[in-house]
Amino acid sequence: MTISERSSHQQLPWSAGRWTHAPVSAVAEGEDLVVTAAENSDAWRLTSYGFIHDSEHALLDSFPVGAAVEVTFTAALPEQFDQAGVFVRIDAQRWVKAGLERSDGRLQLGAVVTQGQSDWSVAPADEWSGQRVTVRVSRTGGALIVRAGLAGQDRQFVRVTPLDPEQVAEAGPYLCAPTRAGLSVRFHSWHLTEADTALH
C-alpha cells in the first residue's frame, strides 16, 4: 500500500507490524505498547567490533517512498547500550537504526547506517532522559532524512543517508539491550505520514 492509499497522517496499530525477532514480551497498556527486550539483542555488522549481531526487536510495516515513519517513546534507557527508536530494513545487510542509546554513561542521539558494514554517529542528549521523544525518518527521492525531538516540540536534524527509491523497505519502532536483561521501553505511538519535502 502506498502513502497515497493511506490517510496523510495515520496512527498505525501495534498489530500492523511483524517482529524481526520476537521480544521477551510486548504488552498493550491503553494506547501504549510496553516491550521487554531479550538480553544480548542488538543490530550491528562488523565495523571496529568485528562481530555481526542480527537480533534486534523491530516491529516493521511497509515504508514506501514519499512516507515518513514517526515513533514516540519514553527515553528510559539507563544501562550501557540500551537503545530504542526507528528501524528501517531492506535486508540483513542493509538497514538503518535511528534514535537514542546509552553509551559511556551518556544518553546519545544518533544513527547507525549499514551497507554491508555499520557506521555510527552520535551526539549527547542527556536532557532527553526520561522524556517522551519522537524519532522521525522520512523517505523521499533517494534519501532517508532522520529527525528527532521531544514530543510536541520541533525536531532537530540528525542524519541524511542514501536509499535507492527502487528498494522495498520496511520501518517501525525498535529496541535492543546488548548487555543485559530487563530493559522495557514504553512506546506511545507509531505514525505513517507524508515525508519531509526539504532537508532544511
UniProtKB/TrEMBL annotation:
Alphabetized Pfam families for the sequence: DUF1349 (PF07081)
InterPro entries in the cross-refs: ConA-like_dom_sf, DUF1349
Domain of life: Bacteria
Name of the protein described by the UniProt record: DUF1349 domain-containing protein
